[in-house]
Design goal:
This protein is an alpha/beta fold. It has one domain (2-269): Alpha/Beta hydrolase fold, catalytic domain (Rossmann fold, 3-Layer(aba) Sandwich). It is built from 7 helices and 8 strands; from the N terminus they run E-E-E-H-E-H-E-H-H-E-H-E-H-E-H. Helix 1 links the parallel strand 3 and strand 4. The two termini are 17 Å apart. This is Putative lipase esterase (Putative). Keywords: Hydrolase.
Length: 274
């Protein structure tokens, strides 16, 4: 495996992505193009959680998938949106234009978002598949399309009371555009198949987020799989020792740790694996 950081540009704005590229295996007897997962880690739009970056990248890589981690726009001088959408579109465009020597199956670009990063993926699954919205948010200049999305304990509706974000000031720093507050309202019949997992006792992101989003996908007849574990805190990541915070056993959850195997069996059913 090779890892490399890249600086991508949108006009005068620069952002980083990190690629985890699988090597070719001589024993296969031929060259292989691998699917690629684009990860948007969580962090409340104030940082990028490293627990949801390399540990997840290496786990997906073990299933014969390239991985790219997107260091998307955070709360700062400018709102998170619409720049974060443009960063995602640019990343997909960049992937589709990489040389054949990178051995990417460009028909199998999968977006994976966790917590706040899940909001970006959830929103993009609506906006990126709607011609009018692509034009509105200035992503119609970019080529390429994702094939599916994976959402882990995602923020999908920022208006849910008692859930992140908890104050209107933060909400407006994320997006002054109310259209982006409820990602379920952005979905359409061309939105891509989606896998969602969460825990019922998530103390930060109310389960209403995932349930409402999944319900809307089902209404649109978009292939959807939803797994809600009975217990577990927010931000479990892999829910194993690899992503456990030191001395905090609450980040271990044997049942929820099975989410990634469920994801892979679902991707296999969707014909999105090697």
């Amino acid at each position: 495996m090779k890892t490399e950081e890249y600086n991508l540009n949108i006009s005068d704005h620069q952002f980083k992505v990190k690629g985890y590229w699988l090597d070719q295996v001589a024993d296969f007897g031929r060259k292989v193009d691998y699917p690629v997962v684009v990860i948007c880690p969580g962090g409340g739009f104030t940082f990028h959680s490293e627990r949801e970056e390399e540990p997840l990248a290496l786990r997906f890589s073990s299933f014969a998938m390239h991985v790219v981690v997107l260091e998307y726009n955070l709360i700062g001088k400018k709102p998170v949106y619409p720049l974060a959408l443009q960063e995602m579109a640019k990343t997909i465009d960049w992937l589709t234009k990489l040389p054949e020597s990178m051995h990417i199956d460009k028909s199998k670009i999968i977006l994976a978002g966790f917590s706040a990063g899940g909001h970006i993926v959830a929103a993009y699954n609506g906006i990126g598949t709607d011609e009018k919205l692509r034009e509105k948010y200035q992503i119609d200049r970019y080529s390429g399309q994702h094939a599916a999305t994976i959402l882990g304990y995602p923020v999908t509706d920022m208006t849910v009371k008692g859930s992140f974000p908890e104050d209107e000031q933060t909400l407006k720093k994320i997006s002054p555009d109310k259209t982006l507050w409820k990602t379920q309202d952005l979905l359409n019949k061309k939105s891509k198949p989606t896998f969602i997992w969460l825990t019922r006792t998530d103390e930060l992101v109310n389960v209403t987020n995932s349930l409402t989003y999944a319900n809307r996908l089902a209404q649109l007849n978009v292939p959807t799989e939803l797994h809600m574990y009975e217990s577990g805190i927010h931000g479990l990541a892999l829910a194993t020792y690899v992503t456990k915070k030191p001395g905090k056993n609450k980040y271990l959850n044997r049942r929820a740790a099975g989410w990634i195997d469920l994801v892979m069996s679902w991707l296999e059913m969707m014909d999105l694996v090697l």
